[in-house]
Amino acid sequence: ENFMPSIGTSSYLKSPDGPGIREDSGVELGSEVSFYYDPMLSKLCAWGSNRDEAIFRMKRGLKEYQISGVQTTIPFCLLVLDHKDFRNGSYSTDFVGKQLNRLLESEFNTEPIAALAAALIVHHQRENSEVIVRQSKKSNWKLNSLKLR
Fold it and tell me: Could you write out the three-class secondary structure of the chain?
């Protein structure tokens, strides 16, 4: 919340690696993060032969970075890297201040998720419902046709 430190203990940690990736970290498995801890536990650096390659490597590194037990800004960083203004280099030092609400709205757009959930519920109900048709022996009708004698 508001980029404040997340209190907890790192219960799982897998750092990214590969070409064009460097991690500078002060956290290791089992590290306890208190409220008084420096909020920047780790810094991930990426570089490439051009801007697009560096952004691609950074996104890959952020997606490979796995840490449990504390919250991170990794999802937010991925949103920034995908923003059109950031991608084309037309941003300034107040980018986050100006774009924060739009970035968070795009992260929490639940309409597609709600539509998918509704479709899955309907599909599940149809797959698991049994259609029971009972026919009286006294009827002259068969299902979908006239009973022949």
Answer: CCCCCCCEECCEEECCCCCCEEEEECCCCCCEECCCCCCCCEEEEECCCCHHHHHHHHHHHHHHCEEECCCCCHHHHHHHHHCHHHHCCCCCCCHHHHHHHHHHHHHCCCHHHHHHHHHHHHHHHHHHCCCCCCCCCCCCEECCEECCC
**pLDDT band of 141, cuts 50, 70, 90:** low
- How many structural domains are present in the chain? 2
Tell me the residue range of the domain where 66 lies: 8-82
Do residues 71 and 98 both lie within one domain?
no
Question: pTM value?
Answer: 0.64
Residue 15 has pLDDT above 80, yes or no: yes
